[in-house]
Amino acid sequence: xxxxxxxxxxxxxxxxxxxxxxxxxxxxxxxxxxxxxxxxxxxxxxxxxxxxxxxxxxxxxxxxxxxxxxxxxxxxxxxxxxxxxxxxxxxxxxxxxxxxxxxxxxxxxxxxxxxxxxxxxxxxxxxxxxxxxxxxxxxxxxxxxxxxxxxxxxxxxxxxxxxxxxxxxxxxxxxxxxxxxxxxxxxxxxxxxxxxxxxxxxxxxxxxxxxxxxxxxxxxxxxxxxxxxxxxxxxxxxxxxxxxxxxxxxxxxxxxxxxxxxxxxxxxxxxxxxxxxxxxxxxxxxxxxxxxxxxxxxxxxxxxxxxxxxxxxxxxxxxxxxxxxxxxxxxxxxxxxxxxxxxxxxxxxxxxxxxxxxxxxxxxxxxxxxxxxxxxxxxxxxxxxxxxxxxxxxxxxxxxxxxxxxxxxxxxxxxxxxxxxxxxxxx
Length: 427
Fold this sequence. Notes:
32% of the residues lie in helices and 19% in strands. It is an alpha/beta fold.
C-alpha cells in the first residue's frame, strides 16, 4: 500500500493506492447546519486524510436487514455526513465516471458502506466510481425548521455532483461523461435529479435500479402535513434545532407512523417533494433529449415489503398456501410500483425522443427469490462483504454472473450500448 496526494477543492487529499486502485474515502464535499441547505466546500491547501471511511447519517436500523444483512454497522454516525468516496484506476486518464446513490427508503444506508465498495466494477469496467452519502430521514427530507425546504438530502446530492464536476479530472475522470446510478431510493434519486433544472450539465446517463417509480406523481401534501405535525408534537416544547439526535429520531418514527395510513406512498414517506427547491414541477421527460437511461427491476422486488406488512405476516402463518399467496401479492405490488412504471418510463422516454434501455433480474440464489436488492452484490462489494446476506442463500454471489452484470453497467457508462432497446433477463 502507498499513499498519494491528489488536489481537490476539499483540500489536498491523502489517499491510498492499493493494488492499482486509488481509494479516497470520507471526502467532505459540503457542510451544513441542521435543517439548512448545504454549503459547498471552499478551496483549501490543507492536507485532508482521505484514507478512512466517513460517517453515515444518523439513522435507525434498516428494516431490510433481514434481506441484506447489516450494511452500515462498521460506520460511525454524524450529522456531518456530506462525504463521498472515489475509487479510480491509478493510471486513469479521461475515464467515464459513475456516481452511486445508495438506497434505504431515504432513512437508512451510506455510500461509505463496505457492501458498496466498487473495486471489481472499477477494475473490470475501466470506470471511476464515486459513492455519495447524504442526509436522510427527518434530517434530509422533513425540515422541521422550514416547511418550504424539505429537499435537503437532494440538495446534498447536487452538491456532490458539483464536486465531481470540479474535481474528478484530478483522479483521471472525464466530467463530461458522468452516469448517475442507484438502487431503490438511490434509483428514485436519479429520477428526482432529472427533474432539477440545475443538474442539466452534471450528468448525461442514469441507471435506475428498482426505483419505486409507481409513487411518482402521487399527491404528498396531506401526508407531509400530517408527518410534520406528528414530528413536532413528539418534540413537544424542544426546538428542532436544539433537540438531540435520539429525540429527532423518535420524532421521525412519529412522522412515519402518521404516514402509514396514506397507503403505498407512505411506504417511502420521507422522499423528495416535487415543486420544492431544487425540483421543478415539469415531467422528467424534459430530460429525455439529454439523458440516456437504463431502467429496470427485479422479478420479486416487492416480496420483502409484503413480508414486512402485517397482512404478509398473517399469510406466512398459513404455511405453503400462505407463502404462495405472498408471492402472488408480491408480484402484483412489483408490477404496480416497480416493473410496470419502469417499462412505462422507458416507453415514454423513447416517445419523447430519448434513449432508454430496460432490464429485469430473475436471478434467484436464495429463499427470497429475485427480491429487492438482489442485484447489488453482482455490482458492488465482495463475496465476503455479502456473506451475511440472507437473500443470497448458502451459495452466495455468482461470480460469473457478477462479471457479466458489471460489464453491462460499465459498458453503458462508456456509451457502448447501441441498440434502441436492451432487455436483460439476468440470468
